[in-house]
Amino acid sequence: MPTITEVMTAFPVHVNEDAPLEQAAVLMEQHHCHHLPVMCGNDVVGLLSREELKLAQTPGHEHEGLEELTAGDLCRRRFASIDLHTRLDIVLSGMADEGLSAVIVMKHDKLAGILTAHDACRFFAQWLRNEYLPDDDPGVA
Description:
With 141 residues, this protein is an alpha/beta fold.
C-alpha cells in the first residue's frame, strides 16, 4: 500500500490569514497549485482554493474583487485534515465519498502536507504506466 507521503505535496506553500488575496493568487500562480493552507502562526485555520478566488471575482458576488480582502476572509474554515499515518486508501475513499478536492495532512498537529485530487490523479497515472506499459514501449516518454 503506498503511503500518503508518496502522493501528497510535502511542506506546501501556505499563506497567513491576514495576507491580501492578491498575494495568495500570486503564490498559487507561481507555485502552480490550486489550494493553499491558511495559517495563523503555526496553526492551520483554513483552506483557500483557486475556485474560491475565481468565484470572488465573478460579477455580483458579495466579495467581488480581491483588492481589500484577505486569505482569512475567503478561506474555508471547515476543512478536512488527516494524520500523516492514515492509510492512503482510506483517505482517497473519504475524499471521493465527501466530494473533497483536497485534505490537509498533519503530523503532531503541525502542517506536513496537502493531498489534492490533482496529486492523486498524477500518482495513479504514473502507477498505471509502471504497471501496464513495458519499459521498451515507444509511447513512454
